[in-house]
């Protein structure tokens, strides 16, 4: 059962890079799915990754902070930290979701 919070789109021809907190390159990845709150990536190596990452899309100069959420079948899921903070702020403004 999918539990997506935001719209996603396939992005098979996109690439991304993951960096550590010191902005050292950890691994290059293929972007499989991308949404405003996260991404499903296919790393080009099996290198162990920290839970806190910096994400950089393609040739962008900007970094986005992200957290490693899951690892499965040579794919990883990350959640963008800024999106999580925006979601929490929205919930505080609007109150808890109704059941």
UniProtKB/TrEMBL annotation:
One of its GO terms (molecular function) is cyclic-di-GMP binding. InterPro entries: PilZ_domain (IPR009875). Residues 2-93 form the PilZ domain. It holds the Pfam family PilZ. SUPFAM superfamilies: PilZ domain-like (SSF141371). This is PilZ domain-containing protein. The lineage of its organism: Bacteria, Pseudomonadati, Pseudomonadota, Alphaproteobacteria, Hyphomicrobiales.
């Amino acid at each position: 059962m999918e539990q997506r919070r935001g719209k996603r789109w396939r992005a098979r021809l996109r690439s991304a890079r993951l960096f550590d907190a010191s902005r050292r390159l950890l691994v290059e990845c293929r972007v499989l799915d991308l949404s405003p709150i996260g991404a499903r990536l296919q790393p080009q190596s099996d290198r162990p990754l920290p839970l806190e990452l910096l994400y950089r899309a393609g040739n962008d100069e900007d970094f986005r902070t992200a957290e490693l959420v899951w690892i499965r079948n040579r794919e990883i899921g990350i959640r963008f930290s800024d999106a999580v903070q925006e979601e929490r702020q929205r919930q505080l403004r609007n109150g808890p979701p109704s059941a």
